[in-house]
């Protein structure tokens, strides 16, 4: 069966492209950190794993263990929506594998849904003034990674609470980056992938210069709620 999967995946991916035959586990519990093992063939040291919805895949922390196995660390997990996400192995010029699918659900999903329903019932029973008092300000609890290398693009996972769909992440950045103009640093808003009300994912395509060393990260909800800042550290590139 495994050999058949490899043959089918190779035919879909094209000659020379990496082959992702299976991922274990393929069902994840919502909001729970997980370690995935991607098995296949043709994995090179510079291959990476991308996960997301079709047309919007983002890199995740992964390690090539061998030419047939990649280990993925999902330190923040995923929310239950969307319920299915694609996983591909991207080896740059070496090609990209055909997609595998992850399902977000399983054990714990029903209890989370029940808890959400109970929260709605409780909120609906509150008077209007109390309901307004329940409005939460977003809060950042953890940044992954917390330290980045200067000048290198990276994907930031923001873990916290009370995030709303459509939230943006503001980071201290040079508004003249990519030009010959004198650097000027301000808080700049970046679009996010809304994984859940506790997880946002942001792609920084340019990376950051080594100075200033600490960059503030703030979540801004569509209703205007702003989190207190948390800081990511920028380190100089190793020689």
Explain this structure to me?
The strands form 4 sheets. Strands 2-9-8-4-5 form a 5-stranded mixed beta sheet, with no helix packed on it. The protein has a 5-stranded mixed beta sheet with strand order 11-18-17-13-14, with no helix packed on it. The chain has a 4-stranded antiparallel beta sheet with strand order 1-3-7-6. It is 14% helix and 43% strand. The chain folds into 2 domains: 103 residues, Immunoglobulin-like; 103 residues, Immunoglobulins (Immunoglobulin-like), CATH 2.60.40. About 14% of the residues have low confidence. The chain is mainly beta. Strand 15 and strand 16 form a beta hairpin. It has 3 helices and 18 strands.
Task: Present the secondary structure layout.
Layout: H1 2-13, E1 19-24, E2 27-28, E3 34-41, E4 48-53, E5 56-60, E6 62-66, E7 69-74, E8 84-90, E9 100-104, H2 109-124, H3 128-133, E10 139-144, E11 147-149, E12 154-161, E13 168-174, E14 185-190, E15 193-196, E16 199-204, E17 214-220, E18 230-235
Parallel strand pairs: 2-9, 11-18
Antiparallel strand pairs: 1-3, 3-7, 4-5, 4-8, 6-7, 8-9, 10-12, 12-16, 13-14, 13-17, 15-16, 17-18
Task: Name a few traits of the molecule.
239 residues, Immunoglobulin-like
Output mean pLDDT: 80
Name the CATH architecture of the largest domain: Sandwich
Strand order of the largest sheet: 2-9-8-4-5
The helicity comes to 10-25%
Instruction: Indicate the low-confidence ranges by residue numbers.
Output: 9-14, 107-134
Number of helices: 3
Assembly state of the chains shown: single chain
- Report the CATH topology name of the largest domain: Immunoglobulin-like
What number of structural domains do the residues give?
Answer: 2
The best one-word shape is: globular
- Report the strand count: 18
CATH H-level name of the largest domain... which superfamily?
A: Immunoglobulins
- End-to-end Cα distance: 47 Å
* Residue share in β-strands: 35-45%
Radius of gyration: 20 Å
Query: What profile does the largest beta sheet have?
Result: 5 strands, mixed
């Amino acid at each position: 069966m495994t050999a058949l999967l490899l043959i089918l995946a190779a035919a879909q991916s094209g000659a020379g492209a990496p082959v992702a035959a299976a991922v274990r586990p393929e069902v994840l519990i919502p909001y729970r950190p997980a370690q995935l093992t991607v098995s296949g063939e043709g994995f090179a040291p510079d291959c990476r794993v991308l996960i997301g919805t079709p047309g919007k895949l983002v890199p995740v922390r992964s390690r090539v263990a061998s030419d047939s196995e990649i280990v993925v660390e999902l330190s923040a997990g995923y929310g239950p929506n969307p319920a299915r996400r694609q996983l591909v192995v991207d080896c740059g010029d070496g090609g990209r594998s055909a997609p595998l699918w992850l399902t977000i659900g399983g054990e714990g999903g029903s209890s989370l849904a029940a808890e959400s329903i109970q929260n709605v019932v409780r909120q609906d029973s509150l008077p209007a003034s109390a309901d307004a008092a329940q409005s939460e300000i977003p809060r950042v609890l953890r940044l992954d990674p917390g330290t980045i290398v200067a000048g290198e693009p990276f994907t930031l996972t923001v873990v916290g609470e009370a995030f709303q769909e459509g939230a943006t992440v503001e980071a201290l950045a040079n508004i003249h980056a990519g030009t010959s103009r004198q650097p000027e640093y301000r808080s700049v808003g970046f679009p996010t992938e809304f994984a859940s009300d506790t997880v946002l994912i942001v792609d920084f395509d340019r990376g950051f210069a080594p100075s200033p060393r600490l960059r503030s990260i703030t979540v801004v909800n569509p209703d205007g709620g702003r989190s207190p800042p948390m800081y990511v550290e920028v380190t100089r590139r190793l020689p």
